[in-house]
Amino acid sequence: MNDPVTNGTRLFVPALSGFYAGLHNFAETFLRVIAGTALVTHGLGKIGDPFGSAGMVESLGFYPGAFWSLMLSLTEFVGGIFIAIGFLTRPASLAAMFVLLVTVWFHWITAGQGYSGAEKSILWAAIFFFFAIRGGNSHSLDAKIGRAF
C-alpha cells in the first residue's frame, strides 16, 4: 500500500516518516490559508471600488468592463476568503486560477515581459490549480460541513 506522505518510496531517513505524516495535512492547509489570504490582500483595494478596474479589463479584451471588473474584485476578495477558510474551495480556486492565467497572458504577451514578468503569476496559478483539483482537505469548512464541490 502506498503511503500518501512518501508516495510509496522509501525514505533515506525512515525515522522521519512520522514527522512527515504529522505535518502532511498541516502543510497543505498552511499553503491554502496563505494563498487565500494573499488573494484577499490583493483584492482588498479592488473591493472598495469594484468597478475601478473596468478600463483595465476592457484593455485586455474583457467586455463589458464593469461586469468583469466586479468579477475580478469578487474573485480576489471573496474568493480569497473562501479559499483561506476552505469553503467552496474548488470553484473559488478555479476562478482564482483563471484570473492568474489572464495575468500570465498580460505580463508575458501584452506587456512583452516574457517569463520574468509572468513568473509570479505562473506560480500562483499553479497553487490555485492544485486546490482546484485537490479541494480544501480535512482542515476546511467544506470538510466540516461534509460537502465539497
Can you describe what's shown?
This protein is mainly alpha-helical and 149 residues long. The chain has one domain (25-141). The chain contains 6 helices and no strands. It has helices at 17-47, 54-59, 65-85, 89-110, 114-134, 141-145. Helix 1 (17-47) runs antiparallel to helix 3 (65-85).
Give keywords.
mainly alpha, 0% strand, 149 residues, single chain
Radius of gyration: 18 Å
Topology as H/E string? HHHHHH
Shape: globular
User: How large a portion of the residues is in β-strands, by DSSP E?
Assistant: under 5%
Total domain modules? 1
Biggest sheet details? none
- Roughly what percent helix? over 70%
Poorly predicted ranges (pLDDT <50, ≥5 residues)? Answer: none
State the assembly state of the protein chains.
single chain
DSSP strand count: 0
Mean pLDDT equals 94
**First-last Cα distance:** 28 Å
Question: Class by helix and strand content?
Answer: mainly alpha
The number of distinct helices, counting runs of at least 4 residues, comes to 6
